Queue: 4 jobs
Job 1
Amino acid sequence: MKRLVVFGCGYSARRFVELHRGGFDAVDVTTRSEATAAALRAEGLRTHLFDGGPVGDGLRGAIAEASHVLVSAPPDAAGDPTLRGAGEALQAAGELRWVGYLSTIGVYPDAGGGWVDEATPPDSDSDRGRRRVTAEGSWLAFGAVKRVQVQIFRLAGIYGPGRGPVEHLRAGTAKRLVKQGQVFNRIHVDDIAAAIAAGIERPLVGPVINVTDDEPAPPQDVIAYAAELMGVAPPPETAFETAELSPMQRSFYSSNKRVANRVLRERLGVQLAYPTYREGMAALAR
């Protein structure tokens, strides 16, 4: 039996389930919110409330039969909530053969606009990044002890239906921030789903895989391109140094790097549906 358990059914994991649930005999998902749980149940998913605390009987039973586990829940100050609450049940899971962990390219250090890849040692200068590095190590250690394949998917800036520059332009909330020399990689949520599916088919690739597009680009260029596609005026350029931003928003600009995706393309065999922001924005604008 091929059974998937998803810890933290957020934007990316939910899209993977939506597109690829047919490849499993059963799918169970977790969320911390009762409202989200109700929505997921309405989509026909077996849903369990889980916040890193004790595992309920229903979820424990699903874990016992799980062949694949996808972890999307982020770490907190106390560590990885999935391992904290469900680690014992996962260690005892007799059918488990694969774990996918959704991480972030935010674990890489600032490269001054230069290139990094999977061989670059993670060395984040933010608390969130350091938590991710620790969580990645914990999952790799789990895999070594349990003798199951663990793949770490380091995701670039995620966009897709309902999320990203096109939605911000439609809502009138888009900003065109300019920081000299700054570039970001991005990734469409459907390409994330394709990467996870390919990882399940090729579990020996990795264990770390950068899931990014082919063209790191300045954020103001992406906003301007999306506005052109939509036939609207782009927001005025705003200097990053004088922009009103939350600490989290400002932290995204503290690291400047180009992230290579050769493992994704050449070893995992993923052909990106949206290799640059241009294809992605065009699809969303339509």
Note: The chain has two domains: 3-157+187-211, 160-185+213-256+274-285.
Job 2
Amino acid sequence: MTFRLVASDLDGTLLRDDGSVAPRTRAALDAVRAAGAAVIPVTARQPIGVRAIAAAAGIEGRVLCSNGALCVDPGTGETLWEETVAVAAQRELAHALRRAVPGVLFASVRDRGEVFVAEQDYIAGVRYADHKRDPATMIPAGWDLVTGTASLKFLARHPALPADALLEAARSLGVEGVELTHSGAPFLEVQPAGITKGAALARLCDALGVAREEVLAFGDAPNDRDMVAWAGHGVAVGNAAGEVREVAAEVTASNEDDGVARVLERLLAGGAFGR
């Protein structure tokens, strides 16, 4: 089988822990592109966060952002799709989650990921690394304004609880119209129902005429599980969550030990990439 498309998560997978692109990884990506295969980042980041590392990774063309809710070319601004969480669904979830977990805080990412509106206490606890954007650019607002506009991604965090605990609590509520996950960052991530990295990758591949069997995918976090499971050959990096490792066809070295590059180099040596 020839792989025509490589899909990779960024943080914790393609990138080192400090957010950099290892020279070995960049060389492998360049070789894959030279062989004729497409390289598509599939990330929880918004375009603002992708632009920050685009040059280092050689990212050009389409990117699946916001866990697949947004397909965009950050260079040209072309948007293929943007799916949003309905106001009624996010308000129902926010009401129910705040009753179940007092102290939870909310934020809304909008307008192709360029606008970030959040409760003041949410912003107070944020670091740049959390959302790959300067907290000073976040717009403070009350609950009604945060929840009152459809979100590309709706977010919840708690000062004392990790994301996996919020995810478990949110899933127990049974709210319809939402997809719940997290990417290893300290917050719950909410997309429209049915929007996952795997579903978005399948949608893009259909548009490009690329078969599932021709897709190689890499991931590490719970939000990567569907993508790794869907791809013709799904790879978990060594630091991946157990649920990702369970569905992967292969487990490589960690993101700190050039795991993605190691697989690409092996497959390149076997002539596995092409148009």
Note: The mean pLDDT is 96.
Job 3
Amino acid sequence: MTQDIIRIACIGIGATLIMDAWLVLLRRLGVPTLNFAFIGRWVGHLPRGRFFHDAIAKAQPVPGETALGWITHYAIGIAFAALLVILAGSQWPENPTALPAVLVGLGTVAAPLLVMQPAMGAGVLARKTATPLRNCLRSLVNHGVFGFGLFLAAALYQHIGG
């Protein structure tokens, strides 16, 4: 049981690292990406009873919001890795294949498009942004990269320690 939890955590962290490397590449190419401090700000307002914001960038800053945002980002990555193992089966990490991982990764795009963006003031499917379709497609690609990262992280874990 402990070994399974460690494996899932490593897969989630690895996949999130791959997604972050992708986001760094996009930033270097001039493509805007999410500021994780805003995730921390949103999470920091939850205990205060505030779920929805008109614009998270204009919300009151929260102490430690950048660190909180990054911790939340990685915790979500681990949770999505657990979801993959639940959906693909407990044997999947021992013999990982790309298709279930990429499909789960693509499915996780529902979280930002239907929960995070509306809660942060961007609207469902980013409809309150200047370029909703572009933002949705960018999110879909980013989560596809995360899904492929789930596969790569699981394969690496199996290769070096599984």
Note: Residues 38 and 57 are 7 Å apart (CA to CA).
Job 4
Amino acid sequence: MAASSQPSSDAVGVDLRAVRKWYGPVQAVRDVSLAIRPGEIVSLLGPSGCGKTTTLRMIAGLEHPDAGEIRIGGALVNAVAPWKRNIGMVFQNYALFPHMSVAENVAFGLAMRREGRAAIDAKVAAAMAQVRLAPLADRRPSQLSGGQRQRVALARAIVTRPSVLLLDEPLAALDRKLREQMQVEIKQLQREVGITTVFVTHDQEEALTLSDRIVVMEEGRVVQTGTPSEVYERPRSRFVSDFIGFTNAVRGRVEAVEAGTATVAMGSGQTIRVPAEADIAPAQAVDLVVRPEKVEVDPPEAARPGRTLIAGTLRHSVYTGAVTYHHVDIGGGETLIAMTPNGDGHAGPPALGSPVTLGVRPENMLVFARAG
């Protein structure tokens, strides 16, 4: 499928303004405001119960907001019925009709709109070609693999040329390898048709792979919005850093802050200097956070210049094929993990039990005030 970075001429934006939703005494969505640009693919990411699916269902019209506005293409749709919003939706369980063939499933929305047979046949053929299912037109869903059923659901959602495509954890039932394949295919298809897309997932890798922007939600609120690299590299809170990818966290206490740099004493007694945000103050308990791939592990005599250096002892290494994870005891009951690629020509790690020096570029060490 050929990729295109341009939205289709009929792509529209989605705008949520201070949207709220209660279920009895429980507030599921809390003042969510979000502007999604025409042709953009945005992932709503967060743990179960964070409000992401409720937000998606309100965009679709399957739930009604208790406060705030939802606009599609600039038009207020709070009181507009789901079938009048020109939305395409793919559910986690695909929701295919088992008694219908693949072609009949794809044609269903067009038939409901009472389009002519010739137009339906042409649009179904085009949609099925886009998802590479043309040879399977006469099969029933029970005769398809999980990935094929997913493609049928996508074809059915796009065949009506909706203004907005909504995907509610559509890959959750697939195995890892097929899920990764479908992530790439959905991204390519979205680029090809240029449709504004909102994707709900609790899987960080899906969000990083698919999204132009990621919206991280916690307890009904949006806690960070940004490109995949912004959210991964510069999380704004400990919650986001923990939820997006694996991270190291070491406890410490701030000894001094000067000119945007904090001097932090760790439990081992080692003191390091790292960049600090404005809310970090002397005597404050903090967490030092760094991604394993940002940590270098070397013998003490080979420590690299320009790094924040932390002394430790290599306790064990875990080989995973492409990379090795080195677990380093830095004292005070704390461990830092360094991830190194297993490339040709690289020297092996120091022996287990030997002293090592961990190096981190200062800008890659994040400091967050510790909760509680």
Note: The chain is about 25% helix and 35% strand.
